[in-house]
Amino acid sequence: SAKFCHFGILPTCQNSLVSLATLTITRRRTYECSHVQTYEPQKIILAENRRDRDSEIIGCFWHINLAFPKSASGVKINSIVGEHNYNINPLIVEIAPKFQKLTNEMLKRVKFWTIQERIGMITQYNLLVALFPNKIINKKDLSNAIQQFKKQVKSSKNDAYQMLTE
Q1: pLDDT (tens digit, 9 = 90+) per residue, 107-166?
Q2: 110 shares its domain with 143
Q3: What distance in Å separates the CA atoms of residue 53 and residue 158, rounded to the nearest whole number?
Q4: Cβ contact 103:131 at 8 Å
Q5: How far apart are CA 166 and CA 102, in angstroms?
Q6: From what superkingdom does this record's organism come (predicted)?
Q7: How far is Cα 161 from Cα 154, in angstroms, rounded to an integer?
Q8: Which of 131, 95, 135 is nearest to 110 (CA)?
Q9: Predicted local confidence at residue 4, as pLDDT
Q10: For 145, phi and psi rounded to 5 degrees?
């Protein structure tokens, strides 16, 4: 999968035939690297006022063309271009935000620790690291989860509201 290849893939081109039972059968499909397009800015701003920033859209060549012919019983690979025009980071599983999400088990524990035990973020972080040694835990994600649980418990009627209504 893309997670283990350390890059993202996008399904880009698809040719389909619709059968009588309104089921769609895809006959051809192209998958491309998520960096495939070339960035062309739409804004016309003075060069001295622009931020000097790189884009992830760099015109990568990697793609695979697949076909499912009517006469075949399986998917056929028509062509593969297996080269990227950038260095692939082998640590993507550790640094990409989409792989750093807290699991449901972690969220249950954080909710309990936050609402029932009132444990602080640093202690919760240390507990999660000890309980889940193979999982990467981002402190910002943990902080966001704690704040969400605190909002659920916090009364919408604050002290000033209660004083005025008494």
Answers
A1: 999 999 999 988 999 999 999 999 999 888 889 899 999 999 988 877 656 667 667 766
A2: yes
A3: 44
A4: no
A5: 42
A6: Eukaryota
A7: 14
A8: 131
A9: 39
A10: -65, -45
Same domain, 70 and 46: yes
Whole-angstrom distance, CA of residue 13 vs CA of residue 141 = 35
How far apart CA 127 and CA 133 sit, in angstroms, is 10
> What is the residue range of 55's domain?
2-89
Radius of gyration, CA atoms only, the chain: 25
Together in a domain, 33 and 85 = yes
Q: Which residue has the tokens 């793609």?
A: 63
Cβ atoms of 140 and 101 within 8 Å: the answer is: no
> What residues contact 134, with CB distance under 8 A and at least 6 apart?
none
Into how many domains does the chain fold?
Answer: 2
74 shares a domain with 116: no
Last residue of one domain, picked from the residues 89, 123, 145: 89
Q: Which of 71, 84, 75, 69 is nearest to 33 (CA)?
A: 84
CA distances 130 to 93, 110, 122, Å, are: 20, 14, 12
CA–CA separation, 136 and 110 (whole Å): 15
What length does the chain have?
A: 166
